[in-house]
Design a protein that fits this description.
The protein is an all-alpha fold. The protein has two domains: 407 residues, MFS general substrate transporter like domains (Growth Hormone, Chain: A, Up-down Bundle); 49 residues. Helix content is 78%, strand content 0%. The radius of gyration is 22 Å and the shape is globular.
């Protein structure tokens, strides 16, 4: 039995490849979530405004969201192991740049470099599962990866708060660099080259279709930046509508490119596959509703309206994050047994219940009610991530698993970025008007009515995700030659 099949038959809890990917996923999320709590300290130390300091997060998010598809495509044609190791080197170089940054500009540049390396982790991790594990066993593995993501999100604020308080904000990046070093050694030792058994492909560089990939990356980056700018300066500002027009032009160019190129960045048939589009749409909408809605709006509610400290806010949010970490593997196993569609239906309904409870009863009430609402929503979200990835994997053949999951992860992270901007815009608009809440069940005062409306919009996003369940069924996998007919 070769190494490929050995990996496929190994238990997920003892599989060295999976352990490397779990640690990598945990590190990438921890790196971002722990930096969030350091923004006020960074702002004071480097003497920049709080709004400008937000670019420490924005720069990472834009590069990260747009890099996942590029790494997936590279790993389909070149060494999986080599791609992952190169990405860790870039991730480490960015971490060192951040740790040594003498000015704010250097710090933002370092964060962008960090993201350029960290972007490899989700697409390569999920893509490797689609290659190495049979369809009936992928759910539990996706759940294990999702658990690592949830644990990183939960531990980040606590680790970041303790580190900043004890040693200053730079220790966060030195700590990330140390973990990356351990990851590099483990990856060098345990990761297989998933393309080693394939016949050497002629014109591998041409097959990458870098022009198509760059158009997709620039289009996604411009879209994310444009939506974010519209939230801060308004849609009428040239910076907002200009980048949105650029995004539309780049994405239109990408659509034309994959239909005309001899070796397109991704097979056009992938975007005609109902299973893949439905799973990706569910990921985008649920991620936007939970991350952009629940986790973005809740700290603003707790700190600005209820007067809690950052540490107290972390305590309110932590139970929900730990619920994701604890439940994701079990729910992933259920998606293997009963199918992704059935599990997604129950999970999205649970996510909807939590957000509706937040909009109706928790907003403006005691913090413990907010925590209860988040635990309900988090339980639902834990049941969305791995089954949605499992459903998407059914539409992907092994030879395009990397780029396919890169596209899927692009939808996933774009949901978080655009969701925060959309719900932030709704919140600001409703606060300016000062009207009563739209939700007839809301019994709080006008001071927090805008939050009730923003959470209600998040509920609409989940309802749309429930509609997309109709697109999940029997999937025909898409190959690299599908709908192309020429070599």
């Amino acid at each position: 039995m070769n190494r490929f099949s050995d990996t496929a038959s190994a238990s997920p809890l003892t599989n060295p490849l999976l352990l490397v990917m779990v640690l990598a996923a945990f590190t990438s999320v921890l790196n971002n979530s722990m930096v969030n709590v350091a923004i006020p300290t960074i702002s004071r130390h480097l003497e920049v405004s709080p709004s400008l300091a937000g670019w420490v997060i924005t720069a990472f998010s834009i590069v990260f969201a747009t890099g996942v598809a590029l790494y997936g495509r590279v790993s389909d044609s070149y060494s999986f192991r080599g791609t992952f190791l190169a990405a860790l080197v870039i991730f480490g170089a960015g971490s060192l740049t951040c740790a040594l940054a003498p000015t704010f500009s250097y710090l933002v540049a370092g964060r962008a470099i960090q993201a350029a390396g960290a972007a490899a982790i989700p697409s390569l991790a999920f893509g490797s599962v689609a290659r190495l594990f049979p369809p009936g066993r992928r759910g539990v593995v996706f759940g294990t990866l999702s658990s690592a993501v949830g644990l990183g999100a939960a531990a980040g604020p606590l680790v970041g708060g303790l580190g900043v308080s004890a040693f200053g904000w730079r220790v966060l990046f030195y700590g990330t660099l140390a973990v990356i070093g351990i990851l590099f050694i483990a990856a060098w030792r345990f990761l297989p080259d998933l393309n080693a058994q394939r016949e050497p492909q002629p014109h591998r560089f041409v097959r990458l279709d870098l022009p198509g990939g760059l158009m997709l990356a620039l289009g996604a980056a411009a879209l994310l930046y444009g939506v974010t700018a519209a939230n801060h300066v308004g849609l009428a500002a040239p910076r907002a509508w200009g980048t949105l027009i650029l995004a539309a032009a780049m994405l239109a160019g990408f659509a034309l490119r994959i239909r005309t190129a001899a070796y397109p960045f991704v097979p056009p048939a992938l975007f005609a596959n109902r299973q893949f589009l439905s799973a990706s749409g569910i990921a985008l909408l649920s991620q936007g509703a939970f991350i952009g809605g629940g986790l973005f709006l809740t700290p603003l509610l707790l700190i600005n309206e209820l007067g809690l400290s950052a540490f107290q806010t972390g305590l309110v949010i932590a139970p929900g994050a730990f619920a994701v970490a604890l439940l994701a593997p079990t729910i992933g196993r259920l998606s293997d047994k009963f199918g992704p569609r059935a599990v997604l239906g129950i999970s999205l309904s649970c996510l909807l219940t939590g957000l509706l409870f937040m909009s109706s009863f928790a907003v403006g009430a005691a913090p413990w009610l907010v925590a209860v609402a988040l635990v309900i929503a988090s339980t639902g979200y834990a049941g969305v991530t791995s089954p949605a990835a499992n459903a998407a994997s059914k539409a992907l053949s092994a030879e395009i698993a990397g780029v396919g999951f890169g596209i899927y992860q692009l939808f996933f992270f774009m949901g978080a970025g655009t969701g925060a901007a959309v719900f932030g815009t709704v919140l600001s608009a409703r606060q300016r008007l000062g009207d009563a809440a739209f939700n007839p069940l809301y019994a709080g005062g006008k001071a927090t009515a805008a939050f009730s409306d923003a959470y209600l919009v998040a509920c609409v996003a989940v309802l749309l995700a429930l509609v997309l369940l109709a697109g999940l069924g029997r999937a025909d996998s898409v190959s690299s030659d599908a709908a192309r007919g020429r070599e």
